[in-house]
Every structure is written in C-alpha cells, then in structure tokens.
Write a structure and sequence with these properties.
By secondary structure, this protein is mainly alpha-helical. About 60% of the residues lie in helices and about 5% in strands. Helix 5 packs across helix 14, helix 10 packs antiparallel against helix 11 and helix 16 packs across helix 17.
Amino acid sequence: MANNDLAIKFSNDVYATKKEVAEYMKTPMIDAIWNTVLEYRNHFQVLTKLRHITGSNYSLCLTPAINNRINNVERKLMKLYSQYLRLVVNKTNESYKRLAYKDILETIAKIYNLSLDEVSLNRILNKNISSISPELMVVYHYYLSLENIENNYLKDFDKDTFKNYLSIIQGTTVNTFRTDEINNSLSKSVINKLYLGIPTSSIDKSMNDLILFLNDQSFGMVSKAVCALYYVYYVKPLEIYSEEISILTLKQVLANQGLDEVGATINFECLLESKEELEKYILESQKSLDLTYLLDFLLKKCDEIVDHSFKLLNLAKSNEIHKEIFEEDKTNTNIMPDLSDLEEKVEVKNSQINVEENQVNMIQNVAIDNLPTGLSESDAKRLEEHLLEINPNLSHGQAYFYARHCTVGMAYTIAQYKKEVGCAYETARSSMDNLVYLGYYRKELLKNKFIYIPVKRNK
C-alpha cells in the first residue's frame, strides 16, 4: 500500500497515533510513513486560539471523514432538540427533563460512590432537601448547576462563568481561580512536560485564551464543545471539581450554540465514569497539540450518549400517553348524562371553539395589519408557542423575539434582539439572519447598520 494511501487510512478510517501506526505496520521503522501522515493532515489543519503553556497553539485536523462525522453528530443533536420542542407544546418536556436529570444525578452519585435511592433522588429533584443525608448535598448542588445552564444558556462566557460553576457545586461563593499547585508525575519530567493542572501563574492567561476561543464563531458547535472540555480539564482552573466543570462547560457550549436548555439534559457526565480512558486521549492531544485525538474519541461516544437521550425522550412520551389514558379511564363513568346539561356543554364548547378560531386568526394574520401597540403579552405568548409548533427550525429566543416584534411598518435591530433575549451580539445577529432566511423579516441596510422589517405573512 502506498504511503499516501496509508496517510488517508490513518487519518480518515481511524485517527491513529504514531504508536498505533507502528503496531499496525508491525515495525517501529515508520518515520517515512508517519511524515506522510503528518503532511496529509497538514492540509486540513485548523489552528485554535487555545494555547499550550509553551505558547504554541492547539489545532484540529478536519479531514473530510472527520467533518462528516461531526456533521452527523450535530444533525443528531438538532434532531433531539427538534423533538424536544414538540414536547414543549404538551408540556411533556418537563417529564423528559425529570427523567434526564434523574439519569445524570444517578451517574454523579455513582462517580462519588454515594448511595442514592429513589426517594432521595425525588427529594433532590423537588428541592425538598431537609431530609436527605448530608453527603448527598453535592448531588443536589450538581442538579442546581444543571438548572443554571438550562436557565442561562444565552449568557456570554467570561471568567466568572467558571467560578460560578464551582460556587454552585460547592455551595459557597468562589471569587478566585486555583491558588494551590497540582503536583503529579506528569509535570515532573524535564522535557515534554504534560499537565492535568497547569501552574497557577499561567491560569489567568490561559482562561483569557479560553474566553476568546468560546467567543470565536469560526468553529462549529461540537468542535467548540470538545475543545472547551479539553482546555478546562488541562488547565484545572479551580481548586476542586475541575473535571465536572469541564463537562458542564461542554454542555453550556452546546446549549449556547443552539441546543438551548436541551444541552443540560444530555448525560455527558458518564464520560467521568471511565476517567482513565478520557484522560488517555486528553494527554495524547496535549503531546501532539492536536485536539483531534480527543475529538475522534468523543465523536464515537456521542452517538451512544445522544441515543440514550432519545430513549429517555421516547419514554417521556410513552409515560404521558399512559397517564392521559389512565386519567381518561378514571373520569369516564357509565352514568347517562342529563341531556339539558349536555346541550349546555355543547353551547359552551362551541363558544370556546369560536374564541379559539379568533385566536388562531389573530396568530395567522400577524405581520399583515399595522399594530401600533403590538400584541398583548398573552397573545404574544400564544404566538410564540404557535411558531415553535409549526416551525421547529426556530429557537426559543427567535420565536420569543418575533412574537413581540412583528408589526408591519416597524424596523428592528440586532441590538434590540441582544437586549431583549439577553445573548451575545453574534448570537443575536445569526438569530435575526435566520429569521430572514425563514421569511419572517426582510433585511435592509440603513446608513451603517442593518434593520429587519417584518414581512407580510398569510400564515
């Protein structure tokens, strides 16, 4: 097999290390082959803003095969998000979130070797913690950190984001990064030092790099999330719980980049059940400054992790259906209803239908007539829910903004979206452009800024 074919094989079929290539070739004399592999990978190398303590930048190798795998995982994640939005309409999403958080908290308890029974688990989820054992408080605080992601996924990343993670998990306010050095055998070598916890003098600078990277829009959702997990794990910016915070960071990146609150519900915590395997790829990425080794590993894991979320989502649907059937059976009786009562109920029902038809017409005719005062909050809320139901490509933030800014003749800006939804400017810009793409607004240039004008819609 030609060296070029081997380079493609060891970069696309499997993203192999030099040691793995030597094992496959059954010889340690592979310098020529390995140089060809590196030369091939160099064509697809993308530098990140993340830097090693030496000042060298980490990179990703986005070969066609790896890009395809990333796209497949992102499609799967967005399909999960789309199906979650359908649950929101019937409030079945609350059942899904409860199942998902139960699953995650059981994983956390297992990692800490804690006994977590069903009663205690339900008390934690209900925030009835007066009667749970003290050692389970860390599980409760971890649950609060998941809720924090769910409620604040649109916030920009800054240094306080990471201190806040620890403040919630620890239950006390944290204002500083780690001040104690981490001594381990990895960093004691004279050359080619490896770190799972860099020197404290470099933490602040490294976290600045991480914030810059997280605000860089040139990386996709999955690539950015994996790189963020790596960097927090490598830096270990906080005294304790840095591994857990690396997982929370991954989840918040996914949430911030389009998964919204769904990002908090996916059980990436299971990666910490086999830390040795995770750290193997983290260290391999550090040795080569190539984060593709960790990306390759996590892409494989993502398939089964997201599939598990789909199972929980389908279970939530099934549970709600059984619940509805049970409630219906319980309320049904064999008693013949009074016909006069029945006629009265029919009249009431008909009047309700007329009201609902008027409400639907109101929703369908938004952005047709001038509405100087806009919609009432209750009407805007109904329109928001309607938009999410008919168009799963809309995010909650986009539906929320459009429902309150849909008057023909008015013009809206990215700054308004940013202020109203409470998100980063880049998120606001991409959201408004998506609303243009979906036909809700027309985009025009006015002087030195873009404005967004509602488009007349018949439905």
